[in-house]
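dude i think i finally got it to work??
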Amino acid sequence: MANDLLLATYGNYVTVVNTESGNYDGAWDLSAYLGDGVTAVGICYATSQENTQYGYIDYCIILDSSGQLWLMGVAESDGSFLRTTPRSWPILASPPTAIGISHPSPQTATTSTVPCGPVTRLS
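look at this
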């Protein structure tokens, strides 16, 4: 990630992990987006995109316990971490089958424009 962040999921939260201490520096509660009884179960880095206001925004994909994918951007600004509004990602809107899964090419994934949504400071 361009911002040298380590992110992790814990229940309804995406946390920013302090790599020196192993503790977390803060977390965003995503329960308003995920829904009742749904938790974030995994997270991975997707891409970084230059942004005139925040420098770079690192985008990650979050997998929730219902199988839905979410796209969320994270940036650092003035010593605090910001996130964009998580948006459901319709690439796997229905459960995939073992055969015939198509994935975007790396060129498409890294050059696509992802608009920056409203940002929220880390609590």
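Strands lie at 6-10, 13-17, 24-29, 40-51, 55-64, 69-77, 80-84, 87-89, 119-121.
im so relieved honestly
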